[in-house]
Amino acid sequence: EDQVTQSPEALRLQEGESSSLNCSYTVSGLRGLFWYRQDPGKGPEFLFTLYSAGEEKEKERLKATLTKKESFLHITAPKPEDSATYLCAGRMDSSYKLIFGSGTRLLVRP
Amino acid sequence: GAGVSQSPSNKVTEKGKDVELRCDPISGHTALYWYRQSLGQGLEFLIYFQGNSAPDKSGLPSDRFSAERTGGSVSTLTIQRTQQEDSAVYLCASSLRRTGPYEQYFGPGTRLTVT
């Protein structure tokens, strides 16, 4: 069964304390691994797409990486404004829908 | 440019009533998706439209749910005879074209509460 699992469910960091969020997937014929940020009461905001193992993408304090089994979202020196729920999703070869994980709720304290 | 818009932002309805939720995708995007996000749950795919092709309805949870897309643009998701378990945030997304890139851009959602 195609599945995306995120860990941890929740993460509390002090401002400046770097960490990583994990997304493991069992998606047949993966045709893209997507990261989104979701703030309370809002729709998910697109961050990154990764297509092949070894690929990396960066945006400000965020860096996403991909292996054959999992993806990591590294947050370097986070700020309180990085607090949000981070979602990852996989797209199968045979479908256009995204299979989402349940998300990691990140809280960065000043 | 303008993003995906959805209306209403909030909808409270009584059990058994029908509701219609509207989505206006990003101009020029040919693919449109509906997802549902229940409290504490991940996003659940409902339906996908691509141009004039037949929609992929494989995620619709029951025959009380239907959706249409008129003129390749605006879409309406209809839930008939609403039940309390239909309470959720309904999210619409659009993407540029069938052959990629595949990034889906989401609207703000409609929060549906069935009392």
What does this structure look like?
- The complex is a heterodimer of chains A (110) and B (115).
- With 110 residues, chain A is an all-beta fold.
- Chain A has no helices and 11 strands.
- In chain A, the strands form 2 sheets. In chain A, strands 2, 4, 5, 9, 10 and 11 form a 6-stranded mixed sheet that branches. In chain A, strands 1-3-8-7-6 form a 5-stranded antiparallel sheet, with no helix packed on it.
- The relative contact order of chain A is 0.34.
- Chain B is mainly beta and 115 residues long.
- The mean pLDDT of chain B is 92.
- Classes of the chains: A mainly beta (110), B mainly beta (115).
- At the A-B interface, β5, β9 and β10 of A face β4, β5 and β9 of B.
Describe the structure concisely for a colleague.
Chain A has 110 residues and is mostly beta strands.
Q: How much of the residues of chain A is beta strand, in percent?
A: over 45%
Question: End-to-end span of chain B in angstroms?
Answer: 37 Å
**How large is the count of helical segments of chain B?**
0
Ranges of chain A with pLDDT <50 over ≥5 residues? Answer: none
Oligomer status: heterodimer
Mean of pLDDT of chain A = 93
Uncertain ranges of chain B: none
Main sheet: strands, sense, barrel of chain A: 6 strands, mixed
Tell how many strands the DSSP assignment of chain B holds. 10
Order of helices and strands of chain A: EEEEEEEEEEE
Return Rg of chain B in Å: 13 Å
